[in-house]
Amino acid sequence: MVMPLNVDEAVQRLLEGNQRYTGGRSIHPNQGTDRREEVQRGQTPFAVILGCSDSRVPPEIIFDQGVGDLFVIRVAGNIVDDAVLGSIEYAAEHLGVGLVVVLGHQRCGAVQAAVKGGEARGHVAALIEAISPAVYEARTLPGDVVDNAIRASVRRSVSLLRTSRPLLGDLVRGGKLEVIGAYYRLEGGTVEIVGE
Fold it and tell me: What are the two backbone dihedrals, phi and then psi, of residue 30, each rounded to the nearest 5 degrees?
């Protein structure tokens, strides 16, 4: 059984993996048959990644991690809904994961659509509606509206997860869970932590 990492160690492991990835030195850990055999008995991921569905942003690759290392939830625009909350609650409560990273990324199509506005067809409207508050906030800031909206959306999701009732907020207040935001640059592949 692997000892769980504390939050600082988990963040460091992610950022070190990203440095390997951006430097062309990925080691592709925990991807062999021995790891597949090991995780049959159970999973002990060290972090939850709530990321976008965008095919250019695969968390296991950009953080250079392997099978069973990350509990990944992907949804367009990395929005938070009940299914996402339930998934994160499961990872935190039943798997003991102590770190959640909300990962936004450069040129997010869902955010671009929300900034563009207009009528969205089908269920895409639910994505646009969830992202719209971040767009309103971004329009009041200097700089690129889309980039500002991506970062605002990450911060809003982090805040929502930190205060979610009944479970995640209690874990955060009890020091058993930390939720942080991050931003992935398509140009260069680097990940940076997004502040409050």
Answer: 50, 45
